[in-house]
Amino acid sequence: MNDTLKYKDYFASISYSMEDEVFHGKIIGINDLITFEGRSVTELKKAFKEATEDYLTTCKEMNKQPDKTYKGSFNVRVPASMHKKAALMASQKNITLNELMKVAITIAIKHEREVDQTLEQLHEKAI
Fold it and tell me: What is the torsion angle, in degrees rounded to the nearest 10, for the CA atoms of residue 61, residue 51, residue 19 and residue 1?
């Protein structure tokens, strides 16, 4: 099981260990590795808040920026056929492939539910 929690402007990825019967969390989007755990959802949420507050306090004391800095560029690997179709579409619309990817990401962010459904369908096909 994977999910996320939010506290202030921070998010954490959550997983559950059936073997240990413990929820594990990791704060994402920061410069450091901060983990926490709890045996119940209530414990987990409390541990997340405490870990976040401790991290922010430590960063302040060290005069350190806690948030991860994103450069705005990353590599994307897709099948060659998809790359070709995207390049052709961009060319037909007289835009760069980079501009087309910005549009695609914007649409994906605005339509998160549809993205989730598509990912679910792709996962089912893979099984």
Answer: -120
